Structure formats: C-alpha cells, structure tokens
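Can anyone check this?
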Amino acid sequence: SGRTGCGVGVKVAVVVDRTGLPVGVATDAANVPETVVGPAAVALIPAGVRLRWGLPLVADRAYDSDPLRAYFAARGFVLLAPHRRHRVR
C-alpha cells in the first residue's frame, strides 16, 4: 500500500467486458498513477479470453496521452478517453 494525503491506500484497476464481467485486474499502491495500473490490468487479461481487434477501451481523462494510446493500439484496443485540457500533441 502507498502513502497518500489521506493516509495509506491501494489502487485497483479492473478491465470488464461489455457484460460487466471482470477479465483483468491489477492492484498497486495508492500513490502509483492510474496510467501505470491501467495498462497492467490490460496486460493481465488471461490468454484464454477472446477479444476482437479494435475493441474500445473506455477510460477517464487521466489516460489521455499519445504513448498510452499507442500502447493500447498495439494490443488491439482503441482508447476512448476525453482529451485533457490544454492538451498538446
């Protein structure tokens, strides 16, 4: 667990399919950025889970970065995340 302004905590990232069934889960210390835990959850999707190429991956604004979009695209996902304010490409 990691130290935060509110104490000690844990961050959990869960990847679910369209029915809400969890297919990938990753945990880390609370002071670790979401942009580290999220890709770990995607990487932990078991090989037996069949995913079609170009599957949308819905995430929050924190995931809006070109390197993350490239990371997910290389794994067959299309990242759908709102652009951060003052985003510079």
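Reply from J.R.: I decoded it. Residues 22 and 75 are 18 Å apart (CA to CA).
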